[in-house]
Design a protein that fits this description.
The structure holds 2 protein chains of 2 kinds. Chain A is of the alpha+beta class. Chain A contains 6 helices and 3 strands; from the N terminus they run H-H-H-H-H-E-E-E-H. Chain A has a 3-stranded antiparallel beta sheet. In chain A, helix 3 packs across helix 4. The radius of gyration of chain A is 16 Å and the shape is elongated. Helices cover about 30% and strands about 30% of the residues of chain B. The two termini of chain B are about 15 Å apart. Chain B has one domain. In chain B, a hairpin with a 5-residue loop joins strand 5 and strand 6. By secondary structure, chain B is α/β, with parallel strands linked by helices. The chains are: A alpha+beta, B alpha/beta. The interface between A and B is medium-sized, with 28 and 33 residues.
Chain lengths: ~140, ~130
């Protein structure tokens, strides 16, 4: 009999694995792409054309199923007019897994810049951090 | 009557609360064991991701992760995968989702037996044959 605790443990183990860290990055990229597609009113086809990638590739990126290289990420974000940086956590020395510093270029001008650092290592604070990071991507 | 229990009970920032039946818990666990690459957990992670943004944000056509089936029942799945969770929203704001059944489809198109299972979920919703285990 599988319990809720069992599922939580599975999720926790996954999130703590290298694959989980990578998957979270894919999710973050997907969210940035989706958000900007919506704001621009672009289709995935349009982004594919602008970034010179196949539409099926963009679809896999949107669904977090594409493991893409950083240069390719750069092409996609550039096509969208978005800049995003990975910021290494200064205390844990691990990859910061949320879009911590995103500078949007809107209408040819520099948009708002957000920087969030994960300052504590406890689980509770991680959750709080993720909430803040998520909220930042929504704002 | 099915009893549903809250998934991710410690995550208080989710836009959509997910309540899962025993069958869904077992199906997700079984699916996770078969996921590649190891370790499994992609589906659970994505489910939490959708819940964080709110299921309604991800509703759409057949390529969307959350799609309306019939009789008030929606399915949640990953693009390119055949594992599906079937359930329904509680309340007009779609803040709570009751996942009543889950299974791995045999193929892209639903088989009659799989449609029957969705019909069962429709029945559970219509007759309110579910309750929460708090």
């Amino acid at each position: 009999m599988t319990t809720i605790s069992d599922l939580n443990r599975i999720l926790h183990d996954f999130e703590d694995s290298p694959e989980g860290v990578g998957y979270e990055l894919r999710l973050n990229l997907s969210e940035i792409v989706l958000r900007n597609l919506r704001s621009k009113g672009w289709t995935q086809r349009r982004l594919a054309d602008e970034s010179k990638k196949l539409e099926s590739y963009i679809t896999r990126v949107v669904h977090s199923q594409q493991n893409c290289g950083l240069d390719t990420v750069g092409k996609i974000l550039h096509a969208l007019g978005v800049r995003a940086s990975l910021v290494q956590n200064p205390q844990q020395m691990s990859i910061a897994i949320s879009p911590l510093r995103i500078t949007y270029s809107l209408d040819g001008t520099h948009g708002e810049e957000k920087t969030i650092y994960e300052e504590e290592s406890s689980t509770k604070d991680k959750v709080q951090f993720k909430e803040e990071a998520y909220a930042a991507t929504l704002s | 009557m099915i009893i549903v229990e809250r998934l991710f009970p410690d995550e208080h920032h989710l836009q959509t609360e997910i309540w899962v039946s025993d069958a869904v818990r077992e199906a997700i666990a079984q699916h996770t064991r078969s996921e590649r690459p190891k370790p499994g957990g992609h589906f659970l992670k994505k489910l939490k991701y959708y819940a964080t943004g709110g299921f309604a944000e991800f509703e759409g056509d057949e390529k969307s992760p959350v799609r309306y089936e019939w009789g008030g029942v929606y399915r949640v799945g990953l693009h390119g995968k055949l594992f599906r969770v079937y359930g329904f929203y509680i309340g007009p704001k779609k803040l709570c989702f009751v996942a009543a059944d889950a299974f791995l489809k045999k193929a892209g198109k639903l088989r009659p037996s799989e449609k029957d299972r969705i019909d069962e979920v429709v029945k559970i919703r219509e007759k309110k044959q579910w309750r929460k285990r708090e």
